[in-house]
Amino acid sequence: METITWIDQIVFPVFILWFVGIILVLFRKDFEILWKVSFLFLFVVYLILFGKEWSLALDRLESNPGWEIRNYIYGMGKAIFYFLFILWPITMIRLYYTGSKELAKHTASLLVTITIIYWMLFWLYFHFMYEVDEFFSGRFQEWFIR
Q: In angstroms, rounded to a whole number, what is the distance separating the alpha carbons of residues 22 and 31?
């Protein structure tokens, strides 16, 4: 059995979200064509860089969709943790240099709210870890076997 890292777990859902975002941005009229092409170019470059991981994730999804979706959920939880860890210091510097007091307040309240919600969900998972893992290993897998 191959070892799957958390980046392997999230590469497929991240690219799906990114693709949806690209489609939505392409339909916006207030972005110049240069920005749209730049966004599309970045998406393609990252798709090439993570092509192997994308292909392996697609193969895993086709062979066992229930288990792979479970991996997406667990992997996204880890990715959000690391993302918040990196985002907080950058946001603190950004808040200091922002020119708008309202933007600073809105950004701070949004990030604090997201972090508290994440911590509450993590606490619930930690408190009910056995039940959640049992659900994802049992009942959740049965939905995809039928």
A: 12
